Amino acid sequence: MVRWWIESEELDGYTVNFVTFRQDIDQAPLLKGMPDDRCQCPHWGYMTKGRVTFRFADHEEVIEAGDAFYLPPGHVGVSNEPDSEYVQFSPSAELAEVSAVIMKNMQAMQAG
After folding, report:
1. Could you report the per-residue pLDDT of 47-88, keeping only the tens digit for each?
2. Closest-CA residue to 75 (of 43, 46, 103, 97)
């Protein structure tokens, strides 16, 4: 089952992602193995639809449609409204490291 959809484009060292979450997702299990089990890649973006909640070591941030955002390293997405959408800009090298861990965890989860 596809829970989210990401379309990406590489632009001069940055990756632009158009992200859609089909249903509510706690991303914490996908980030296991990263330092502090949190995303270490910074992201800048704009929320176009819905709402997402990110947890940091000392607080949570809710980003809603119409919000521009910056997520410094050390965050994890813990919930979202179904069909939430945003565009984000991330340094490609750091994003590749996070993506590799996410893919490894997804494969392990699917293997059961």
Report:
1. 999 999 999 999 999 999 999 999 999 999 999 999 999 999
2. 43
Q: What is the 3-state secondary structure (H, E, C) of 75-92?
A: EEEEEECCCEEEEEEEEH
66-17-35 Cα angle (round to 5): 100
Query: Which strand (E) or helix (H) includes residue 108?
Result: helix 92-111
Residue 95 neighbours by CB under 8 Å, 6+ apart: 15, 41
Compute the distance between CA of residue 89 and CA of residue 103 in angstroms, rounded to an integer: 20
Positive or negative, the CA dihedral 93, 53, 38, 1 is: negative
Q: What are phi and psi of 108, to 5 degrees?
A: -65, -40
Phi first, then psi: what are they for 3, rounded to 5°? -100, -20
Where exactly are the structural domains of the chain? 4-111
- For CA atoms 94, 99, 102, 107, give the dihedral sign: negative
- As a CATH number, domain 4-111 is 2.60.120.10
